[in-house]
Design brief:
mainly alpha, 3 helices, rod-shaped
């Protein structure tokens, strides 16, 4: 075989389909000893450290979410209190009375309009 024939064969073999690299295979690698205790201990320690860090991140995330929920609950309580106040005002207005709080608000707004 001369050089041109070999290059044609090589081109055909590379374009035929996907080829797996030898380093991409799963399982044990040839030449590695199964008794690498030091390597296994290091791997276990890295795994433990990674698990500790994961638990710490998870704990921080839960704390953040709990604070977020507490803030939202405070906002909900404040809005409910405001809603109850407005409902009381609406009942008083329906009965023909002007609530004191509304009277002061109207006076303040009236004073602002007079200044302008």
């Amino acid at each position: 075989m001369d050089f041109q024939e070999m290059s044609v064969i090589e081109e055909q073999s590379t374009t035929e389909g996907p080829h797996r690299k030898e380093s991409g295979k799963r399982g044990r690698k040839p030449g590695r000893k199964s008794g690498d205790k030091v390597d296994m201990k290091a791997k276990l320690e890295r795994s433990r450290q990674s698990a500790r860090e994961c638990r710490a991140r998870k704990k921080l995330r839960y704390q953040y979410l709990e604070e977020l929920v507490a803030d939202r609950e405070k906002a909900v309580f404040a809005l409910r209190k405001e809603l109850e106040k407005f409902q009381v005002w609406a009942k008083e207005i329906d009965e023909g009375r002007v609530p004191e709080d509304i009277q002061t608000i109207l006076e303040d707004v009236g004073a602002l309009k007079k200044e302008k």
